[in-house]
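Lab notes, practical 5.
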Amino acid sequence: MARQYNFAAGPAALPEPVLRRAQAELLDYRDEGASAMEISHRGKAFIEIAERSERNLRALLSIPDDYAVLFLQGGATVQQALLPLNLAAPGQAVDYVVTGHWGATAVKEAQPSADVAVIANSKTADGQYCDIVPYAEWAPREGTAYLHYTPNETIHGIEFLDEPDLPDQVVVADMSSTLLSRPIDVRRYGVIYAGAQKNIGPSGLVVVIVRRDLLERAGQPRAPIFHWKRHADTGSMLNTPPTLAWYLAGLVFEWALEQGGVAALAKVNANKAADLYAAIDGSGGFYRNSVAPRARSWMNVPFLLHDPALESAFLTGADQAGLRALKGHRAVGGMRASIYNAVPAEAVAALIAYMKDFQQRHG
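Output from the prediction step:
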């Protein structure tokens, strides 16, 4: 079966050149006589993979030397639970901004370990999320350990299209669906964490970028494996890391550099999103996106059909047209096109053409 255009929200599309290279190296990685997932994580070959991966990620994001880069097991939700354990003293307050499902999840994960306050929340009276809360409207408390927000909400298609300027706050950002999609100023953040399964690589890996002085915080009593500093001191090899996911992430970083880096990827991403939103807005109401224009995500574009009874036919036809994983999240319904870095402009053009054809046949 030929590869289809993959609009999945995560695990998401990987660049085809990365998959082909991994396929070529699957049985024998650089004359090791074994694949990258079979060699020892403490051997020279994998240490080179790890060091090259970190070096390339630092180059892509201009990560300063006073930030550590960790490649850890698990997903972003695990890190949500570990944030207060590593950054907050027992009973210390932490602030959260909620603009969607994953911001709300981060609150729930932190609550057992910290005094959590939601200082801004864009949830509407009917339980929906359709907008951001601008930075100027945040009201952080004094003496908090950190302030957490989610720059892009994958389910609701809501994104902060600029970055915070909060020099007096330790800003923590869940960038699972933001990282590598555009340039960021790492120095604006104390901690950036990202599950890999959007723009970085396969699931099972999470990247944590943390300012080194924050690693010295005592935090709260926890098992040694949950100490970020221990992972930093051991090159993210305190225990056996997810070697296959790390290797594939490294290939993605090399691919991103070959595309011209995150600035070049951002131009492509902005154009893809603009084209898709224009198709939705120009449909005369046949398709609808309810997110405020100032908060429309570049990465995740949810949309509804004017008649919900047509959704099944839309999805069936999309599958037949080679456009996969367009069903919206159960929390909001409808459709969702996740257009991460690895989703080419040709895929978005094919989706737009299908949407127009479907409207002509069912409008």
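Observations recorded by the TA: The mean pLDDT is 96. The chain has nine helices and 14 strands.
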